Amino acid sequence: MVKTRNITAYDQLRARYDHAPRRLSFAPGSPFGEWKLRFKEKVRELIGPLPEAVPLNLEVTEELHVDDFVEAGMPPFTQQRVVYDTDSHSSCVAYLLLPDGIGPGERRPGIVCAHGHGAGKRQMIGLDPSTWMEKGGSPPGAPNFEATAVHLVKLGYVVIAPDWRAFGERALDPEYTRRGRDGCNVLHMGFGYFGFTLLGLNMWDAMRSVDVLQSLPEVDPGRIGMVGKSYGGTMTTYTAALDDRVKAACISGYLSTLDDAMSRRGLGNYCGAQYLPGLLEWGDIPDVVGLIAPKPLLIEAGERDSCFAFPDTTRAHGRLVEIYTAAGHPERLDRDVADVEHDYIFKKLPDFFAKHL
């Protein structure tokens, strides 16, 4: 029998995908607890070593009282630029938003707001042109829902929006990255020389951002949530899956399969910031998302999303339903679908966090 020869790199990728063992992918009827324990341990191994924690040394470097959107129905809030240490060689910069009206001794839920590819944390507070396009039914006179942190602080949450490594103030400069190269890939390989993955380091920074929230007198340390779209959805997936302190999560525009990401339609929809080395040996993206179970999880999916195609995210969601059913809490998984592109939907999100945080 003549073996098929795969000459092109793409054909080699697809052949390996078709034969990937996925040894710990969830199978309907499997005991959920045993599967979660084994697969979580494997994901934690694949993501690589994490740094050692150091004191946060939280510093407020700027502070503004923002009342620009009152006429749009958004109450005033305090916006701080904060810097904190995440490991012995790294500091993180973030925007911290605190709603007005927190009473003495009162503690509010805290939310980590994860940005995707683009302008970083600036987008989360409306300091990016993309947040002022009219879309999604956001209030007139206010940024759209891409400025996620602003819409969350409006609801009364204390919100932290960090810059992930490779973005915003933590991006590689263009000269170092060199023309035509992806900063995520360059940084992933750079940190790889020290044994780290970029995904693991950014997840670590998200966990340290949870530490920041829990350190604040205005935050109830037992009520922490996380939300993110696109790469922010990647960050929300891995952080909520591996950090038990995240009690509820919303993943927008990310739930998918590697079948699509590695296809001619997806056109290599992955980068050095969001891939887990060796994942297909053990499972797929829906399995990683399934590690969040049985915690409350909201999935947002745009019917016209060309980045994470709706048929694929629907297929992945079906696998997620199987996992939540096996966990004994199918009611804790919800989905918000709308006729949008690669955008936040924000219809079910306010009630979701109000119920679960």
Report what the structure shows.
There is one protein chain. This protein has helices at 9-18, 32-46, 121-124, 148-154, 174-177, 183-192, 198-215, 231-242, 258-261, 279-282, 285-290, 310-326, 349-356; strands at 59-66, 77-87, 90-99, 108-114, 158-162, 219-229, 246-252, 297-302, 333-338. The protein has 357 residues and is α/β, with parallel strands linked by helices. It has a single domain (9-356), classed as Rossmann fold (3-Layer(aba) Sandwich), CATH 3.40.50. It has a nine-stranded mixed sheet, with helices on both faces. The chain is globular, with a radius of gyration of 20 Å. It starts with 8 loop residues before the first helix and ends with a helix. The model has no long low-confidence stretch (mean pLDDT 96).
The biggest sheet amounts to: 9 strands, mixed
Report, as a whole number of angstroms, the end-to-end distance: 60 Å
On the 0 to 100 scale, the average pLDDT is 96
- Structural class by sheet pairing and helices: alpha/beta
Which percent band covers the strand fraction? 15-25%
- Secondary structure: number of strands: 9
Shape annotation: globular
Radius of gyration: 20 Å
- How many domains make up the 3D coordinates? 1
**Helix-strand topology string:** HHEEEEHHEHHHEHEHHHEHEH
What's a quick, concise take on this entry?
By secondary structure, this protein is an alpha/beta fold. It has helices spanning about 10-20, 30-45, 120-125, 150-155, 175, 185-190, 200-215, 230-240, 260, 280, 285-290, 310-325, 350-355, and strands at about 60-65, 75-85, 90-100, 110-115, 160, 220-230, 245-250, 295-300, 335-340.
